Amino acid sequence: MKVGVIGCGGMGTTHYLSMKALSDEMDLEVVALADCRPEFLERAMEKFPNAKGYSSGNELIENEALDIVHICLPSNLHVSHAVAAMEKGMNVFIEKPVCLTEAEGEQLLETEKKTGVKAMVGQVVRSTPEYRYLKKLYDDKTYGTLKSIVMQRVSGRVKWGFDNWFHDENRSGSVVLDLHVHDLDFLRYMLGEPKSFDVKASAYKNGMINQIITSYEFQDTFAVVEGIWDESPALKFRPGFRACFEDATLVFDGLENPSLTIYKTNGEIENPEVESDYAGEGNLAGINISDLGPYYTEIKYFAECVRDGKPSEIAPLSEGVKSVEWAIREWKAAKKYVAQRQ
Length: 342
Description:
Layout: E1 2-6, H1 10-22, E2 29-34, H2 38-47, E3 52-54, H3 57-63, E4 68-71, H4 78-87, E5 91-95, H5 102-115, E6 119-122, H6 129-140, E7 146-155, H7 169-172, H8 174-191, E8 196-203, E9 209-217, E10 222-229, E11 238-245, E12 248-253, E13 260-264, E14 269-270, H9 293-308, H10 317-341
Helix pairs in contact: 1-9, 4-5, 5-10, 8-10
């Protein structure tokens, strides 16, 4: 399978390093790369010396015939490139958030239906071992009903990103669509659609939401989720959750090793082992994530779907769009909350 990568910055690097590893076990070859910054493109092409390099994603799409193209651009550029690639018959892997507006989501879904190509969204938490373990406990009712869950996704102020795009809400969707959407999406994946939600939020001095705390009511579970880009860039990225079941509590701390702990009602403590499909790290990416394992897993899964002609069920386009729609509601509520407190 011939693959292209559009955007060779932080997330694009994570993708192409994962595919470099994956090419050792699958018939998959990165044959085209695109980035408007020569230094990033050159660095990527060092990993794939036989690949063709382009200074823009549109140029790559126009000139290549690919089985899959990975779109790892600033969020406001996802839709235009994804639509162009799908209309040319390419299967697309689109980083999250898949879009920034409801109208864009509709455009993506219409194009997917019209062209018949496969599309998957990089909601990587669905492929992360600790969260997969949590979902299995929930599905199997290993410790009874899940009564409540508290989730956090904490990051320092984002200093990477082309042209400081993270700090422009029209390009990133703020912390709500860029970071918080991960936990929102996973909750939907595990628990279904929320019955209701309530939002508290804070903002940077420029008015962009940088912290959101949302409480949700699901059928049998309530959830509280925090996503934050802190004022300080020094704060380490820390994902985590505390899931309270009837007969045990599962705690995940992304900065601890072991990362998972089960506290049972009889007083026993257990550290379950969860295995990653790939143990490599990618510090070359220059972002706050170095573990390539979950990215390798989701990329491999989509490549298998394309190869075998089967639907993408783990993080299909429709799910990515639905999570954005929920996130937009929360984003609007967050802005309203901040405005009322001023």
